[in-house]
Every structure is written in C-alpha cells, then in structure tokens.
User: Fold these one by one.
Assistant:
Number 1:
Amino acid sequence: MRRTPRLVATDLDGTLVHSDSTISPFTRATVLAIQEAGAVFVMVTARPPRWLHDLSDLVGAHGVAIVANGAILYDVAQRKAIRTRLIDPAVALEIAQAIRTAVPEVEFAIERPDRYGQEPHYLNRWPKPDDTLIAALDELLAEPAAKLLVRHRSLHSDELLARVAPIVGERVAASHSGGTGLVEIAASGVSKAAMLADFAGEQGISAAETIAFGDSVNDLPMLSWAGTSYGVGNAHPEVLAVVDHVCPTNDEDGVATVLAELFNL
C-alpha cells in the first residue's frame, strides 16, 4: 500500500494541464480536496509568473508557486517574487553570443521576474505583454534574467538542446519543456528540484514524503529528487525511462487520477 504523500509537486503544461491549456473540473476538485485533507500542493513550472494568476485558487494556504524552471519562488496572490536565482548579465551575454556564433539562426528572449523581453524578430508563440521590452541582445541582457529563451524556428527542442548544451557547459543550466525549437537557460544550479527542495525544507517535509509529476526534460531533476515520481503517459521518453510510475496522460487527467486513488477521494 502506497503511503499518502505530505507534499505533491507537479508540472503544469503537458502534465496537469490539458493540451488545450485548460484544467478539468475533476483535476481542480481533486487538487482542492487533497489540500483539504492536509497535503501541501505546489505547482512547479517553466511558466513565467504572469501565467500563474489564473490558477491562484489552486495555490493553497502557503500562497506560492515555483516558476521559471525554479529561478523564482513566487507569491501568486501578492504578485511578487519572494526568492530569485537570476543569471548574471555578463554571463548571459557571453553565453548568448557563443550560441549565436554556433547556431546563427537562433533568436533570443528573456524573462525577468517582472518583465518579458525579446529581440525584434523573435518568434513569439504566445501574445506578448503590453510592456514587452523589444530590444537588441545587449539591452535585453543588461539586467539579471530568470530565463534566457533560445528559439530556433525549425529544430526540435531535443536537437537544439543537444547543440546548445556543449556550448554553455556548466556555466548555466540548459533544459527544455518540450515542443519545437525552444531551449530555456537559467543560472547555474537552478532547477525545479533545487527550489522545490528549499520549499519542502521550509515546510518541514522531506524528499521521501514528496510525490512529483512531470512530462519533460526540465522535470527530470525534480522527479529524481522526489521520493515518488510519476510521468504522465504522454511524457518525453527520457522521463518515462526514469520515473517510478507512469500514469494516464495529461488529457486523461492522469495526475488527478493518481491523487484521487492515493487520498481515497
């Protein structure tokens, strides 16, 4: 019989969230029910802070989410960063220039704790915020960033990451969250796992008491850290190869299905 976890950590897109960017009533009700039962629930996502506001009812009493792949611990209700681990501007610029030399077709964008920015011709697949900083690379990277986004218009993210990783080495943390042509770079040592471990420690919860759900390469450190790990059925092959369990897909409410069983809902 599986032990009921004290901490439930889950990725959002591709994991908890359906492919049409919605959360089902069943999943929403389940998340709220496990918190009523005493579990701590935390969203751990590559999303920037502004993309969490519509999910504020899921956050729970602690009020925070781990965003930008672990670069920011974010107070969703107060709409402010509590803790940040940002890329030094000089390091980010050096890295970006090296990537562009090796892969000339790339385009760059950045996420700061309070602002998004991009190069003029960056292919943005989502609506830009009204205050978007549109600027050349040196201006984009003049201040510390939570994430440096590397976009290629035709390569799969796996292939782009394979090209970028040897260039950046250990100077920064490079990963991706699936899809076509996007690699996300954070400061060295930043990961979903690192910030989740800090958060869990502050709650008095160990890795062994934590269950984590994910679907992509950027979830691997978190899934390895947690005492129990699940990959959704649609997860990246690297995820499916290492998790303890595989549950139904995101569109089949896999996370909520597992939680409903564990908490006897």
Number 2:
Amino acid sequence: MRKPVVGVIGNAHRVENRFQVQMVGERNLRAVAEVSGGLPVMFAGSPDITDIAALLDTVDGVILTGARANVHPTRFNVDPCEKHEPYDIHRDEVALALSVACVARGIPLFGICRGLQEMNVAFGGSLHPEIREIPGRMNHRMPRLENGDIHPDPTVVFADRHDVDLTPGGAFATLLGCEKIRVNSLHGQGILDPGKRVLVEGVAEDGTIEAIRIAEAPTFALGVQWHAEYDPQHNPINRKLFEAFGEALVARQKAAA
C-alpha cells in the first residue's frame, strides 16, 4: 500500500516584500512524514487556484496548520480592527469550506492553532481577537524578549506553558490516556463561542478552549489550540495525536480501496 497523502494548507507570505509565495512550516511536514507515516503535500490557501473537490479526491487527510495571520472577523460577524492584523482572507475562504467538506466526505482533518479556530468558525462559531484581553485570562502569545523581539530559543518559545483539562471519557482523554496535559501556547485569537457541531474537549486553567472535535464526524476531526507539530518525536502528547491521525489516514485508504 502506498503512503497516505496528506494535504497541508499553505500560508500567504511575501519574500523580500516583493515576491508572493505560499509557505508551510517544515515542522508540520516532518510531523506528517515521520510520525503519521504520510506523504505531506502543500496545497495553496488561495481559492482561485485550489479546487477543493479535486484536492479531496487526491489526498487521504488534511492538516490546517497554525499561521501568523488571524481569521478575518467578518467571518463571525465582528468588525475588523487594525491592531488584530494581519489577516489572510484567501486562506479563510479555502480553510472554512475545506473543514466542512472534509467532515462531510469522511476525510481525516487535523486543525492546529489557527486550524482549530478555522474549524470552529466553519461550523458557525466565533473567536475573540485577543484572548489575553478577557479578564482572568493569561497571555497565550509566544514568549518575547524585553525589547519585544521573539525569543531566539525555540525550546523557550515552544515550552509547555499551561495545563489543559480534558473531558473525561472524551476522544482526547481516550486517545491520550489521561485527563490533564500540559501544552505550549503561541496564539492571540481563541474560541469565544463554539460552533454548532463543535464539542469542547479540552480547556486551559484560565478557561481558554484548547481542544475540540466535530460531533458525528465519521473519522478523525480534531483541533488543538497548541502547536502539536512541535517535537512529536519526543513529546508524548503530540506524538499520540499524530499517530492517531496516521491511523485514521490508513483507515481512510482501506475504506476507499
């Protein structure tokens, strides 16, 4: 049997402030290849050159990765604000439609950070543009130096920052074999109101939603707010997630054979 093919969404980026490119972080690609056992293939987060139906005829699963850009507020009926930029409206259009299509067609879907947020919005949920501004919430953004620069040490940036309580007996608790985990945190936006089919299965100690699944999805349809692609070879939580995604890929292949 061939390796399962996994579509990994691209992000809009400009090189040297001149050349428009689509970009995927290598950690995502390696997590798919080295832990899920799949063949990662980037697809463009641009609706004019991405045919979702054709894409889903080609891949065995989809990963919606994290990204610098926020989901545009008009997607959940909120006015945009300059301080919450940048946005990536083209990726929004692809990712939201793709989330619904994957679930409808029984194609494994794994949303990471922005990907979790996209899944929530796709099913009618809303986001808060800056979780840390809600009273009682912690700063979930990545660690920075005193001068505002991103911390240069990735082990600091991706270090575990807070606990997440998992729903007893839920998909995550069953998959991970525990009801409390500790995860990294690198996000500004977060779920405010869950979508109609979005089941909350993990909540941070400050009340921030960290893990979701789509109700009645026929296969793997999970989202996490943390960056699960970080070091899944050695991080047991992230490894189990990507292994489970890989098992869903193989099951999908067999069902389609």
Number 3:
Amino acid sequence: MSIADNLKQYKNEVESDGVKLIAVSKTQPVESILEAYNAGQRIFGENLVQEMVEKQAQLPADIEWHLIGHLQTNKVKYIAPFVQLIHGVDSIKLLQEINKQAAKHNRIIDCLLQVYIADEDTKFGLGFDEVVELLRDETYPELKNIRIVGLMGIATNTKNEKQIAIEFHELKVFFDGIKVSFFRKDEAFKEISTGMSADYKIAIEEGSTMVRIGSSIFGKRVIKHFKSNISAN
C-alpha cells in the first residue's frame, strides 16, 4: 500500500474518535512527507532538531511541526521560530529556555510535560511528584511565552497489553488530577500524547488525544545521516 493509502486508513480510524494523528516522519525523506501532505496530513513529528529544521525549510508553511524526541536546551533556539508543540518537556530549566526563545520571536509555544510511566530504565521523564513540583515552582508563573497544554507518556516496550493499559490509565488519572489542581479554568490543558504504532489502540481506549504513528504510515524507515549546520553550543 502507498503512503496515501496507509494514511487514509489511520486517519479514518483515529480521527473518527476525535484523536489527532501525528505522522512521525523522522528519517523519512522530504518526498515521502510531501506525499502524506498531499494526502491531507498536516501534523508531522520529528525527534531530531537538525532534521526538523532542514525539512521545515523545504516543505509547505502550513505544516504543524511537533518535536517528539528529547530536546536539549541549547537546541531550542533553532526550532523556536516555527515549532507548534514540544512533547518532551522534562524540566523547569528546559521550560525556561523555551520561554526565552519563544519571547524572541514574539510567540507562545505549546508544551507537554513528559511523565515517566514505563516499567523500564529511561533517561527522560518526570515522576508524578516532579510534575507537581514543577508546576509549584516559583518561576513557573513568570513564563508567559509557553503554554502547558497537557502530558505525554511512553509505555513500557512489552507485548503485555494489560500492563500497557494500566500505565496509560494511570497517566489519564494523573492528568485529571493535574487538570483540577492547576488548570481548572484553562481550556488549553486538554492533551494526552500516548500511543504509537504498536499500542495506539490501547492508548485511545485509555484517554489519549493524540497518537504518534510512523513506520506503519511511511513504511520502513530510511536511515540517513543529516548533515547538521547546528553547532553543539
């Protein structure tokens, strides 16, 4: 099946439930993204800053770019002019940098707090208590150029669907609590980003509002090393 056919299948299934489909285009060539765009897709997710910057410059301006991978503070400035949503915010320091760079472009950048829900070692993600601590940080109310619109989580990489469902369910319960405690009057706080190709159906059942699907749409990923003009500093 073509990219357009794959995309149509997922859009019909996912969007009929009111869930946003993020086409994960990392390592995919511009031509493949354009095929998905021409088939009606507008939201694309990348996990590397330099790759997203390069593609954004070559593709239609109305694409909504989501940064779904871990974001280093020294790379925020490169995506601040255009990124629509940053999924993996895992520290007040990163949030402060996003705010700083967004202000330079007179923008408000939407962010999701990444919550650690998997039963496996990972470098990234906030514990439930750390999310509360971040939202209570005295500097948080001063950040006028960011907007926290929800939470993101990645389930354990396992075939145990019951465990995956429990992890997604716990995040939804936590989301509901955070909504009441910190965002009761904020209509923008409504997103739960969980679910990928292998577990998106479970994620939707457990309250996900956006799912990230890549290889099932685009086919096997093309491994390409993007030459970056972005320095490490």
